[in-house]
Amino acid sequence: MKGNEIEVSRIHKIEGDSKLKAFVDLSLDGVIIKGLRIVSGSSGLFVGMPRHQGKDGKWYNTVYPATKEIQERISNLVLAAYEG
Question: Among 12, 33, 34, 57, which one has the highest count of C-beta atoms within 10 angstroms of its own C-beta?
C-alpha cells in the first residue's frame, strides 16, 4: 500500500483585509478533506483544520493529523500551494 499521498485539490483565496486568507481542500489517498483554512496569525500564516460550531457555540476541529510530521507535511504543502 502506498503511504499517504496528499495533494491540494482546490484553493479559494479570500480578498480583503481579513485574517482568513483562503479555504483549501485536500485529497488524501483519494479522500477529499474540505474546509482547511489559511489564516494570518501573529507569527505569520498557518493552516487551520476544518471545524464546526457546536450547540454550545464553541468551535471544534473535525479533522486531526495523527502525528506532528503529518501536520507539518500538510502545512508545508498547503502554504506552498497558496504562495506559489
Answer: 33
